[in-house]
């Protein structure tokens, strides 16, 4: 079976709120569990947990596996007679979950324990929706090491995913609750030194909806993949300093915003627009850390090598390190704030709404026509680009087409060379962004050197060195035209399989009573560098 649940931290304010709402039907039980693994950690590597739990007076053996969905997992639970694992209570050895467990059963060893008091109540907030709300207070134990348990769990016992996430969002907003990222199993593995204290950042795995899927189902799958990628990198940023964490988090948010545009998602309550704005704000918070990391490992390292011992460069080095520490602290505060939790829950809700929107047709037909519209947008913007702003808008169009190809995945029509097109677009995007990268480097240095106590003469010299060292690498707007012509020609060759129709399809709005989305005009705007009508989708940029 599948288990759908959300875990939240339990600060005193939330504990008091739950105590005020207590009812006579609340069940209070002491829960003791022992988690098992092999000496070489075979279950942990397979993202699998095996525990034996004493729940009241019942012994229960449970197997859980995480297949990438942080909030819904495979669960196999059977009653047993005592505290030791029982082979007969494992999933069948013919199942993917059972193969490893049966092979490793003789090597299983107790790893750590949990001991907590659970106060649970069942809620029926809407017809067909049944939720268990459980408050856990206790501790994790491994040898002489201890770690407190203070959390709230919402589990969907009956009802749809959309109804559950919608109610959970309202509850989290009302209670100002924040999601808890590591599970008891993950925390126990760290306590037992079977996992690093700071988990490594996670790179994305492409979500590839089936060509025959309905467009709404495809949109829901892509949104789930994007938010799973983002969530997988929150704990690495909270617990560690790896530079890849903010980068992967920002990549996930860019892809999510690109998916909102690719599927042109709209809801009567503006949920898609709100998600886009929230994703942009979170990406900005991660971007400040990422920009400082890139500057420190790139241009600043070059300058230190070229001007060893230079007082201004050394002052800049210390200022950047301090600015990065401040930016990381601010990012962690943002990630542990209620706004981030609500953003995650809104994304999960929208994914379920669009998946159940009833959009007809096939995803491959939808994707082909959307890609054709995005391709035309690239051509229009490139032909209209006359200055730096025009080329920046062209870069946005190039980026959106690249992410659109990624969204389409296996649904690309025959005759479209997706990998070649995405590689071409990535190189073109980098070339168009060279000047912007220089501007970002200058802004990073200026912000760091504007900190209190930095001498003015050091700030002036460091800025001058940056301008002199890198200015020649920025491609003037006038030099972009010849490369753009070649890139457009090569792009046309890779996208020959796209349809020639001018239709620009949109999904039905998610949720009842949503307005029809207007078609995107093919032409129009206020001139080459003014706001064009084809920029209608939410937000100014996909990332």
Describe what this molecule looks like in 3D.
The chain is α+β, with helices and mostly antiparallel strands and 543 residues long. 50% of the residues lie in helices and 17% in strands. The longest helix is centred in the middle third of the chain and has 27 residues, at 271-297. The protein has an 8-stranded antiparallel β-barrel. It folds into 3 domains: 2-195, Hypothetical Protein Pfu-838710-001, CATH 2.40.320; 215-355, CHAD domain; 362-503.
Q: What proportion of the residues form beta strands (DSSP E)?
A: 15-25%
Assign an overall shape: globular
> What is the multimeric organization of the chains shown?
single chain
In this structure, how is the largest beta sheet organized? 8 strands, antiparallel, barrel
CA-CA gap between termini: 37 Å
Helix content: 40-55%
Give the SSE map:
Elements: E1 2-9, H1 12-20, E2 27-37, H2 42-45, E3 48-55, E4 58-65, E5 72-80, H3 96-104, E6 109-126, E7 129-142, E8 145-158, H4 161-175, H5 184-191, H6 215-232, H7 234-239, H8 244-262, H9 271-297, H10 299-306, H11 311-335, H12 338-355, H13 363-384, H14 388-408, H15 418-432, H16 434-449, H17 456-470, H18 480-494
Antiparallel strand pairs: 1-5, 1-8, 2-3, 2-6, 3-4, 4-5, 6-7, 7-8
Helix pairs in contact: 4-12, 6-8, 6-12, 6-13, 8-9, 8-14, 9-10, 9-11, 9-12, 9-16, 11-16, 11-17, 13-14, 14-15, 15-18, 16-17
